[in-house]
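Task: fold both queries, return tokens.
Query 1:
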Amino acid sequence: MHIVVPVFLAIAIVLWGAGSRTSAAFPGETIRIAILKNGAAVTVAGDGILATRENGDALALAAPVDIKPENAGISANGMFCRRLRISAPLAVYVNGKPYRGVIEITPADKGLLVVNELPLEDYLVGLINCEISSAWPIEAVKAQAVIARTYAINRKNARKNALYHLESSVMDQVYDGCLIEDSRARRAVTETAGEVLTYDGAVIQAFYHSNCGGRTEAAANVWGGTSPPYLKGVECQYCLTSTSSVWEQRLTLRVIEERLKAAGLKVAGVSDIRTGVRNNRGRLKNIVVVSSRGEVAVGGDQFRKAVGYGVIKSTNFTVKVAGGEAFFSGLGNGHGVGLCQWGAKQRALDGFGYGEILSYYYPGTELKKLSDIR
């Protein structure tokens, strides 16, 4: 989604033979994930790989396959083709990582585009431990499965004519293939098979984040426009039990200046950073940067993006400047919109089911099966 930050990774137990159990419930629902964009080269391997050209003809390739851009196409072990699709009985390895389904490789503007096409439910199993830990209470894991499925379907509908539906990074949802699948992730996906959140019969924009720091954010405060009724923000004290709700950071003004310049902001000789106006949810609308060129008001999310989402973890912070350094103290982790993952964990520990957790963070929504809304 827009921005989602991974939390913990569980110990992987890769269940190669179990993939059909989850996807069988919705065999026709696939998803296309961009796992590499503008790559200079890629190596593909796997036992019993089957490769086909753009016209569907088989291409005899011995693994490992070294693939590079060439003219308006690609070179695979020295053989030219316009597009390459590769599958294997168990998994296709792309630069050492295993992926279920089919790997499609095409030339991009700069390098190679690598897309993983696979059953939606299998994608979700691989995603769970990239976004949270499957060792969390199972109701929290099931809530994550539902919102990840909902987000994926919403993006697929919006990008149905694109080369891929989602990216595999925090720009959408973090996904690293099937390397860290495990039985609890598969259980959460299986027990919620095909379930999505809807509002007025339509699949919602199921944004989520790591830790809201006490209250979730209205979507309009982050991305502008009007917040849907289910994304106007709710009070959330549940995540405050986590140490991840509080953060501190120290950066030199010189480093901040370099990052702001790299983001296209016209600053020079930065001497002070001040907090600006806060919105109705307590987060900063803007940050005032003082430099030799005067004062510049930088949007809160713009400042986070420029300095680093992993450095400035939220827009709910205070800042003090002394000795050429800025000292940040903040609450929360992520954009704050939609479900708070750490809050969901605590609510599950308190005995709430995944349906109750979801209805709290997305007021007015309904759980429905994909088969019932299509």
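Query 1 returned. Query 2:
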Amino acid sequence: MSEPTTPTRVRTAPAETGAVAAPAPAPTWRRLLSGSAGRNIGLVVALLVIVIVGAVTAPTSFASVDNLLVILRQASIIGVISIGMTLVIIAGGIDLSVGSVMGLASVVATLAAVQDLADNLHWSVMILIALAVGIGAGLINGIVIAYGNVVAFMATLAMLVGARGLAEILAERRTLVVQDRGFITFMNSDFLGVDILIWIFAIVAAFGWVLLNRTTFGRRTVAVGGNREAARLAGIDVRRHTMWLYAITGLCAGIAAVMILGRTTAGTSTHGQLYELDAIAAVVVGGTLLIGGRGTITGTVFGVLIFATLTNVFIQNNLSSSVQAVAKGVIIVVAVLLQQRFSRPPGRS
């Protein structure tokens, strides 16, 4: 007789000592907040809080359609500049010259020779000249940074000083008044009850969103900001791409120059002072990382609206500009701290 078979026991190998445990998954709330949707939700909440404060503290003057249009009109010019700034910062750069370029473009577009040419042809000549000045200054920035290997901070700082000085020389430190009534009438018109400046901001923001999210150019912008060397190895011409990014920022500065000409009916070298700081602040509050690689146009639009609404609330309550500056500074610091907190990889504290 055969012996009964003994059931085979399966031995499990003991766990290796010293094995590294997999990192614990990040909490759901953190994954939500670290995404673009979560950041935008936070911006909407912040904007609503400011609106509620304004409606409570100044119910008669703040909570009106006319005041809403005033806020949007005040946000439109800095908003256009911020769209271009968003693209540059996502790519890991910075542009400190946009305010000075805006002032230079407004001066060149209102020179006597340009206005005479506009009288003989069409007032759109002034617009084309302003845009050309903006693009030209942006291309100079881009070439110096991309092909001259100059740090973006220093290159655009030099343009900030140089453009402002050139504007003062051309204008002879005077205010150049726009004489063409057709240009003034168009830039102060409205469509469907909404100011033309607001429409321009909306169109530029829409184009910026499409460019960043629906084109190869936008994907390359994010790639360059995320890892410049990896983008180069992937076949992206990083230097040429950088050059065109600064040209786009200059174009936005030129558009803003046209807008401020329509609003003030004058060109002067003082236009755009400190606008670069306001634009950077709006971009940072909107969730774009200063180190590059991440950012949204939608977030920037909310950042611009938050600052414009906050300013309006302070004005409605007769608070000084010094208090406004302190509040803006606090908001910027909080935004940067939140960026540092939620931009870390999941699983890291």
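Both queries returned. Flag for query 2: Residues 8-20 have pLDDT under 50 and may be disordered.
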